[in-house]
Amino acid sequence: MNNQILLDNLRCIPDWPIKGVNFRDVTTLFKNPETLKVMADEMYELYKEKGITKIVGIESRGFVMSSALATRLNAGIVLCRKPGKLPCDTIQQTYAKEYGTDTIEIHKDAICEDDIILLHDDLLATGGTMKAAYDLVKKFNPKKIYANFIIELVNEHLNGRETFNNEIEITSLIKV
Fold first, then answer.
1. Cβ atoms within 10 A of the Cβ of 110, count?
2. From CA 128, how far away is CA 98, in angstroms rounded?
């Protein structure tokens, strides 16, 4: 896709959070009404024919476009959060990170077998968090799972797409 309006409004912060990393900041896309509309329109076109019943937004930047898109697709929202943030019984998934592990969770009653799920987050880099979200959602045995990102970092050291098997269709709005 690589819409020029999105690329022109994407902020890059060099050497953050550590030297050598060029951080891609999606908040500049969220604050601009034109880019927000472009993202919502592009995501709607990608998924309007897929029968999505629920969008799983990954904490926290994944919540923004999940909500915007859900209203257009007439779908529900499921929050995928860090432990202790959801008030009812949850199902958890722990996953490896560069230096240790992390855990995400979803309410036990959030997804059913009849659901068609779209997982959404802001950025695909190594794919660790989204792979954990995918594995977590698979425990609910939904009919189908898709994944979407605003930004996909295309870098021979990251290989985020390779984290997933061919069971899931992955789309991204911007590749940098």
1. 22
2. 10
Distance in angstroms (rounded) separating the CA atoms of residues 86 and 122 = 21
Which structure tokens are listed for 121?
A: 């987050």
Q: How confident is the model at residue 1 (pLDDT cuts 50, 70, 90)?
A: confident
Active site residues: 61, 98
Q: Is the separation of the CB atoms in 92 and 103 below 8 Å? A: yes
Model pTM above 0.90? yes
- Ranking 31-35, 108-112, 122-126 by mean pLDDT, the lowest is 122-126
First to last CA, the chain: 11
Token output for 89: 């019984």
Plot region of 141 (φ>0 → left; ψ -120 to 50 → alpha; else → beta): left
The two tokens of residue 75 are 């779908």
